[in-house]
Amino acid sequence: MRHPSLLNQHRPAYRGGLLLAWCAMGLATACTDRTTSSDDRWGRGGELIAMSGGEGGARYACATCHGVRGEGNGFDAPRLAGLPAGYLQKQMEDYAAGLRPHEVMRDVARFLDSHERVRVANHYAALPPQALPPATHEAIDAATPGLYARACQQCHGVEGVGTANGPPLNAQPAFYLTQQLQDWQVSKRRNDGSHVMLKVAQQLQPEALRQLSLYLAQIPPRRALADR
To answer: Among candidates 181, 165, 163, which has minimal Cα distance to 173?
Structure first.
């Protein structure tokens, strides 16, 4: 039988090893890879994530700003209903990566893993296109439709309904559209991959930019022809 003093000599080492083991477990938990699919009950469907905020909680629920039907808030939060799933997924990835700066959306996107982003995108893409009525019915300059046709139509489609190369812009809030174009102008937003939007936006004078935003905001929400 070992002398008690010999046993005591081994206790500090044992306790230190146990402490290191617990620390290692804690670090492993803190560094969990969020690109893996969530097994909790909030990660089973896109609608539930949109309404609950997933692991981010209710403060990050999409519906808080974008409406329960994806209609937007008519001001600075765009409509999501009926937008292409691939586009919506890419925007979440770009928010998370900082390519599209927005503090709240960055946190929202980072709380969602890659599977949850797909589910949320599919949820909003499947909704009927809908939006709040325009905040203003200010008269549009007669030259604005022609300006849109020259500068935007090739990528964003007739009356802004979108194409394979650009998302729908119709029925988005005028303030939101103006804000996005201004961000493109100064390269604050830079997630189109080829800088086309930077070049287009920098050619627009402030009044032309405002007119384009008003024009698109007043076009009713509807899907692109390819989606009908």
So the answer is: 181
pLDDT band for position 135 (cuts 50, 70, 90): confident
Pick the CATH number of 144-227 from 3.10.150.10, 3.50.30.10, 1.10.760.10, 1.10.8.1310: 1.10.760.10
Check if the beta carbon of residue 65 is closer than 8 Å to that of residue 77: yes
Label residues 25-44 b or e (16+ Cβ within 10 Å = b).
eeeeeeeeebeeebeeebbe
CATH topology of domain 41-126: Cytochrome Bc1 Complex; Chain D, domain 2 (1.10.760)
Mean of the per-residue pLDDT values of the chain: 83
On whether the pTM is more than 0.90, the answer is no
- Helix/strand number for the chain, H first, E second: 11, 0
Strands (E), the chain: none
